[in-house]
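Chain A, query sequence.
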Amino acid sequence: KIFFRRIENKFKEKVLKKYKIKKPYFLYVGVLREHKNILNLLRAYSLCVEKYKINEQLVLAGSYDPRYSAVLKFIGNSKYKNRIITTNFIQSNLSLISLYQEASALILPSFREGFGFTPLEALASQTPVITTNTTCIPEILGKASLYFNPADPQDIARKIIQFKKEDKIAATILQESKRELKKFSWLKC
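Chain A, predicted structure.
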């Protein structure tokens, strides 16, 4: 229920300032590990900036796994590294909710997910979701997302651009999310 809470603008501004995030931005929440497919997200983001000239930053909010150094290496070598923000683990739920609420969309490119809490948190925060068409995610989100093939950075980029160009997509996702979110509760769990 905490993710349904609306955060005061003043607090959200403070959180964005702390992490040097400027709106608009796309958000990823989760650990930076191989199965989370961050490299394809970074490749897709680079395509969006190069080919489609998007202005959004990419915010990676999650712990870094030292066994998976490829993400930080990719970012370090990227000509867009000043537009990619890494926050590490977000300690405060209110800060995390603030990041969700201010994001243009959550992007979750995972190859594997255990359940998929982050897209539900995003939807509860009234943030649209662009995500993988594999794993358990389509079963959980139903029509409350825009889906892509996580193995194809071009498809990820196409869906990000489609989301940006078609205003009604975000509204449709958030409308569908009302039905999907009713399916889940900790009491039922």
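The first strand starts at residue 25 and ends at 29. Residues 38-52 form the longest helix (15 residues).
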